[in-house]
Amino acid sequence: MNINSQYQCILVTGGAGFIGSNFIRFLFEKVNYKGKVINVDSLTYAGNLENVADIADEYGGSQYFFEKVDICNYQAVDAVFGNYRPDCVIHFAAESHVDRSIHGPKDFIYTNIVGTFNLLEASRRWWDGDYDARRFHHISTDEVYGSLGETGYFYETTPYDPRSPYSASKASSDHLVMAYYHTYGLPVTISNCSNNYGPYQFPEKLIPLMILNMVDEKPLPVYGDGKNIRDWLFVEDHCLGVWLVVNRGKVGQTYNIGGENEWTNIDLVNRLCEIVAGKTGKSRDFYKKLITFVKDRPGHDRRYAINCDKIKKELGFAQTVDFTQGLEKTVDWYLHNTEWVSRVKSGEYRKWIETNYLQR
Ligand code: NAD
Ligand code: DAU
After folding, report:
1. pLDDT tens track for 298-347
2. pTM of the prediction?
3. Which residue's CA lies nearest to atom 19 of ligand 2?
4. 14: helix, coil or strand?
5. How many distinct structural domains can be found in the chain?
6. Which helix (H) or strand (E) holds 233?
7. Is residue 19 part of a domain?
8. Which residue among 12, 26, 44, 142 is best mutated to probe the pocket of ligand 1, counting the most ligand atoms within 8 A of its Cβ?
């Protein structure tokens, strides 16, 4: 893939999480990035260095560096800027799970808002008005736009209307990012993406949770009536969209990234039952009988659907993985990576990180 990049040193936050780790792998393996990548991650429950173990083995110490840093700690963030002098920041780190934000919003406020503020401040301080060939790219979500009825789409111009503590914290950080552009001229871009799926996703999210519950023959909990709609995008296609925005996007602009692939939750879970059945030899009805309708998520947004014409027309974006292919790849990944799965499920991955990485 030929996308020219002028950046020499990219600070990626949240690179031990689901999308961040896929993005770092994308940089080295898909677009043959030749500069340095600094992965800044505090390793919360969602951060797993095993997600980038292959990258650390191959590129560690020459092109890839890991810094265990909490972005809520300004001094530590500032020190990373001082050590590496990044010319590009791609900010994935966040508390990302809506249900957790309902049970305990505090970490969402700190990481998503204060953490973003600290990164903006450090960028402003170290770049010091020299904004040529610099970029602060902020990863956001379609959830900031609120909830759709049966028709219509989210556009870049749709007014913000967040409804969960998670989406409110993401909306706040988006506003801060744009405020730094308008006030200080910081060279920012934002992308708002729909639901991602693929390898390395923490199994609290719908797709990996359903796959692993099927493997364990446990109930498949579907919230409410199962008719809520999400627009699904394979994670590598999100990475492609982000890389296009970072290198070709206009400063001060927002770009929507989506799958143009709407599914009700119940149809998606039924589809997963068929795919998993095709691989385990059990019947799809065996898995479908595990579907259990449970109490709805409070304030559950009904429908998300992204219009991503802008990134397609202006930056040449196109999805490359169709949903059947993507789900097959994802199911295969969870069925084959049994050690990753068992370490994540048992909590052993925290010990694995400690012995394999942090003590190296
Ligand atoms: P994730 O929860 O899998 O990973 C988040 C990462 O951030 C983890 O590695 C975690 O350790 C790290 N982190 C959390 N708090 C931190 C802190 N205070 N300091 C440093 N690191 C910290 O999340 P994800 O699903 O990969 O999402 C990445 C980004 O993409 C988020 O900003 C999210 O809002 C956004 N997004 C996600 C989706 C999706 O479907 N998953 C869709 C659109 C946008
Ligand atoms: O739209 C982008 C957002 O997608 C991101 O910003 C978030 O970080 C990401 O977590 C995701 O949010 P959702 O709430 O849409 O994802 P989740 O996987 O939690 O749920 C997807 C849908 O499935 C949602 O309608 C709730 C439903 N659901 C979820 C779980 C975990 C169930 O019915 N049962 C479940 O057990």
Report:
1. 999 999 999 999 999 999 999 999 999 999 999 999 999 999 999 999 98
2. 0.98
3. 205
4. coil
5. 1
6. strand 229-234
7. yes
8. 44
